[in-house]
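User: My instructor asked us to take a sequence, write out its structure as tokens, and then describe one feature of it. I'm not sure where to start. Here is the sequence I was given:
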Amino acid sequence: MKNLIVQLEAPAKAMGIGVNELVAIAERGKTVTHEAGACLFHESTPREWLGIVVEGEVEILHGLHGRTTHLATLTDGAIVSEGILLDDCAHSSSAYARGGSVQVLQISRSVLDEVKSNKPEIYYRIVARVAQRINDRLRAASAQLADRAAGATEITSYRTEHDSLGERELPNNAYYGVQTVRALENFSISAVPLRNFAHFVKALAYVKKAAAQANSELKVLDGTIADAIEKACDEILDGKLHDHFVVDMMQGGAGTSTNMNANEVIANRGLELMGHAKGEYKYLHPNDHVNCSQSTNDAYPTAIKLAVIFSLKDTMAAMRELRTALQAKEKEFANVLKMGRTENQDAVPMTLGQEFGAYAVMVETAMTALERSIEELHELNMGATAIGTGLNSPPGYADRVTQHLARETGLPLKKAANLVEATQDSGAFAQMAATLKRAAVQVSKICNDLRWLSSGPRCGLNEINLPPMQPGSSIMPGKVNPVIPELVSQICYQIIGYDVTISMASEASELELNMAEPIIAYDLLHGLMIFKNACVTLTARCINGITANEKRCRDYVQNSIGIVTALNPVIGYEKSASIAKEALATGGSVYDLVLKKGWLTREKLDELLSPANMTDPRQLPEE
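Assistant: Let's start with the prediction itself. The structure tokens for your sequence are:
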């Protein structure tokens, strides 16, 4: 802890407390290693710990709905999740380990509450110091907002652009062009613009950058122009210019409007980098240069595949957290004996841990299926151009552009074996949708069970307690509903519906092209996003806080006729059947009746009904 003492000396001095006292608090925390890309906490989830970055960099991001904003990067010694000292509100941002693994010293809420109770003078000095740091961040944020406002371009001038249908005026601060304007006029449908899906915007940038690299190497694109395109794409990959990706996700034209939105933004930013004004397309043209050797029919589905792969990584990370939480409950409830049920009728005993362990495996199998489905998405039709014949692309382009895409994205991408087939066949999207539906079905089944098991509290099963989230009725005082499982099930219903839509859209492919790829893109990307958020919410606001009503569970076992099945090998079928009949007739418990008849001692009966003996194959006792 010598390094920790060094790190805390200055803060301790500033707070007016001894460094050893601060270190003593820190030593009660634990150092947790988060692998590269791992999420330390999600926006909207409860705060659980105060952290100090020991080693590495933590990125703070805002945005759960497909579009994120980078707020800050925290390095060694920085405090993270400090809001836990000020209020009980949820996280207002997310934190990720970026660029490598990160070590964070995490001090739990329970430790902080103890310090607050036992040493309030130290606790509130720490709070004051944290408030200072928050004020510093607010000052920096205010300056950043002021700079941004000062640098904003006022809409005081316009430029005129033309296409084959005529001319349109555009504000000079817009990086998109005339074809995007037409799309905005034609497709005002969902109020969900392309910019809402950052992974899709970045996927388009990857496609255009790889195309520029391949075209430059094959001498069909001037090196200066290619360099400007690449730099513009790098800015988009860095999170810039996303506000100019404005076309509606729902559109006609098989994605042409999305492709042209990207072409125009990249062209106009490239023109600026070359020292020209927006719209001076004789120097860098959206079609001739940015779209060189491409068609919407290869660039657009390739971008969809990349965006789905990127989005699925986020979704899988959330599913892993859900699986881990269920596995933790499996261990916590390993010795809680309860009654298993089939067709909503008493079956045979099991442990609550086994029930949650089964849920964890469900999530695991869903993840495995999704991983298998992603393999087909690695096959691209880049170089197919219009229908798969490669018209207007130079020899070797298809192989080269795919190689560049693989290098830029770090993904195992490969050229499809048959570009004509790959341009018209949406089977890989249908497979991904079906597999995502499978995951939704499995998670919704878990939520169904959580609602059943927590039903009551007086007149239901009441075997588990879900953490109370909000009052449940405007008329019935004291009622608390299982709102999180209810929410997640509804999200799963939406994803099941998306699978139907994607199946129909995939079937809609006619001859050499599928015109319905835009709705496929929207439903897949939105489905992955809401399922990710559902898993995060289910984990943080439900699973982690579940407790068991052990006595209720055991009472059900002892009063159930079903335990006769477990006694059958010991007392015999005839006695078991008579006990079951008598219990049903009198309302007595099998447990009490066996003791009353003296067929087994309490010790032997308790041994037979122990979780270990009731829930696993065992050697039958000798007569």
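For the description part of your assignment, you could build on this observation: The first strand starts at residue 30 and ends at 34. Try explaining in your own words what that tells you about the chain.
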